[in-house]
Structures are given as C-alpha cells and as structure tokens.
Amino acid sequence: MKYHTIDELLSNNQSWVSEKLALDAKYFDKLADGQKPPFLYIGCSDSRLPLTNFTRTEPGELFVHRNIANQVSLTDINFLAVLEYAIFHLQVKHIIVCGHYDCGGIKTALEGRSTGIIDSWVNPIRELYLHNQGEINAIPTREARLNRLAEINVLAQVKNLYQTSIIRKALHEQNAPTIHGWVLDIKTGLIKDLNVSTVQWQLPSCPLFAKPSLVTMPEIHPTDGVAGCCCEEATKSG
Ligand code: CO
Fold first, then answer.
1. Mean of the pLDDT values across residues 83-106?
2. What percent of the chain has pLDDT over 70?
C-alpha cells in the first residue's frame, strides 16, 4: 500500500485540487453547479474497484451505490432511496450493475467462511449457488467456479432491479433507464459486458400500476325490490 496516514490523504487532496485548477480554473465552479450524472453504478464495496478509475469517469458522471457483493436488495432502504433518487430526480439514462471476479462476498457465500451479519447478507448468493450448482460444480477449477457465480450474481441483481416498484413505475411511465450487467476482471482490469437480455423482465403494464377497471353497478330503484334475492321469491310465493 502506498498510503497509510490520514495526513497523506489530506495532502494528496490539496495537490489534486491544485492540479485540477491548473488544467481548468473553473473546474470546481462547474462541479458546484449541481449533478446530472447519466449513470447509476451499483458495485461491490471492494477497495480495488472504484469504477471511476476503470472507466476514466470524472466526479459528477457516476451516481454510486456500493455494498458487499453488489446486491440489489429489495429490503435495503438505503439502496432503494438511491435507486429512486437516481431515476426520478437525476433521471439517469443507464444503470450498471458491476460485479467482479475474486469477490470476497462470493467466496463467503460459496464456502461459508464467515458467520454473523455478512453471512446473512450474502445468503441470497448462496441461494443462487444452490439453484445453479449443477452448472457450477461441473466447472473444473475453484477460481472459475467463483467467477461464474460472480456472473450469475450480476444477472440475478439485474433481475432484482425489475422486481422493485421503482423500476416498474419507471417502465410504466416509459422513462426507465437501460440496465447493464458487467463484471470486472481484477486480474486484467478489463470490464466484461454480460450483455444481459432484460426484455423478459420488463413489465410496462405491471398489474401494480395498471388502472383498475371500473365495475358499473346496476341502478337500484326502491320499487324494484331486490333482484335475484331469495326474499323476492319468498314474497311472491307467500
Ligand atoms: Co466483491
């Protein structure tokens, strides 16, 4: 590791600001104008993969949510708030779910290394393994098995996005961003686009948001009696 102290980070900050200003005197004035990022990036918390570095993106270009093993959790209020803000306020055009090979969260899920809260957090990945163990167990090496599970995890998280009421609402309003599934190969630095087909999960006319059809009730007049009621027959016959 190159840096170990907080003072080094603060010193780096000052030199970085100086370099930015030397290239563009208005750089921070423009940043302070507000954000309109085209991308929401959902990634793993792993320190080795800030996507900005790998994609040459600048501050203001990626809206970010990161957690262990890049989970799209339907019960994570933090994530759901990020997603809602990204879509309905920032109006991002693309959502990128980016997993990575050599992911500690994937290893924990597959090999049960951890107990405690992380164990619970990665349990959905364990479920994915159980659903796909025929395919994964047939892969000859441990590394390749873990990498395949990392890819399957990305596919599942893209699918999970379509389970959120937020994305369904965006689909219904025809302003849903395009969703992409990527994995980053930490050994090469290269991003692999999994070319996830999302058509089967897009439900623009989801019943949750469809307008309920109105049921027209027949008008009832006091002199009509109650149509079809057993009392009517009883009255006639009585
Ligand atoms: Co990871």
1. 97
2. 84
In this structure, what DSSP letter does residue 93 have? S
Task: Read off the DSSP letter of residue 132.
Answer: T
Identify the residue with better confidence: 90 or 206: 90
Q: Is 230 an annotated catalytic residue? A: no
Catalytic residue among 24, 33, 48, 131: 48
Q: Which residues pair with 67 in a beta bridge?
A: 44
Unique residue bearing structure tokens 């009421």 = 165
pLDDT at 201 over 70: yes
- Give yes or no: 48 in active site: yes
231 is an active site residue? no
| C-alpha neighbours within 13 Å on the C-beta side of residue 217 | 4
Q: Which two tokens stand for residue 43?
A: 């990634």
Distance 60 CA to ligand 1 centre (A): 24
- Tell which CATH architecture fits domain 32-205: 3-Layer(aba) Sandwich (3.40)
* Helix, strand, or coil (residue 180): strand
How remote is the CA of residue 70 from the centroid of ligand 1, in Å?
7
100 in active site: yes
Query: What is the amino acid identity at position 183?
Result: V
**What is the CA 174 to chain-centroid distance, rounded?**
18
**Catalytic one among 4, 29, 33, 100?**
100
